[in-house]
Design a protein that fits this description.
Number of helices: 10
Structural class: mainly alpha
Low-confidence stretches: none
Distance between the termini: 16 Å
Largest sheet: none
Mean pLDDT: 92
Helix content: 55-70%
Strand content: under 5%
Radius of gyration: 17 Å
């Protein structure tokens, strides 16, 4: 859907088009709809980041927790949102050998145990190796730092998803 259509469509269609950007959380797309019209994709991304950053703490924690673990069981079973599946596949997290899978599983468990929510990273900006390094570095952070990191990473993810949504499609 192009930006002009997003600006002009009714709220229901806007929410339908943008819910996937927010990991299937329509309330955030509803809030974003109130910021229309957007001059360009950058303005849309800026408004989406504002919506995310303005969430109350309890809502932010729930939103973070709605994201899937990287190369986790849900991803292996195909039980994640299409955007998440595509992003993880782009980093080849869907093709880990058993040893790599065991490392991701251990890191996911350690991270969730320590912080109470999944490790969030904009995987399109990473390799499998850089994700492992990020796990190791971030496991030493405080809870508050990781809440902030998770929110920052979600903002990056949303920005990348909006860019992809607004990218002109070639005919054919």
């Amino acid at each position: 859907m192009d930006l002009a259509t997003l600006n002009a469509c009714d709220t229901e269609d806007f929410v339908h088009a943008l819910s996937a950007v927010f990991e299937g959380t329509p309330v955030l797309a509803e809030r974003l709809a109130t910021h229309r019209p957007f001059a360009d994709p950058a303005a849309l991304i800026e408004a989406a980041v504002q919506v995310i950053r303005s969430m109350p703490d309890d809502e932010n924690r729930a939103y973070i927790s709605a994201h899937p673990e990287l190369a986790g069981a849900a991803a292996r079973l195909g039980e994640v949102a299409a955007n998440s599946a595509e992003e993880q596949a782009a980093t080849q997290l869907d093709r880990l050998d058993p040893e790599e899978q065991a490392v991701f599983d251990a890191n996911n468990l350690a991270y969730r145990t320590r912080f109470g929510f999944p490790f969030i990273a904009a995987v399109r900006l990473h390799t499998r190796q850089s994700l492992q390094k990020a796990f190791a570095e971030r496991l030493g952070n405080s809870h508050d730092t990781e809440l902030a990191n998770a929110t920052d990473e979600i903002c990056k993810i949303v920005g990348l998803r909006i860019e992809a949504l607004c990218r002109p499609r070639s005919p054919g």
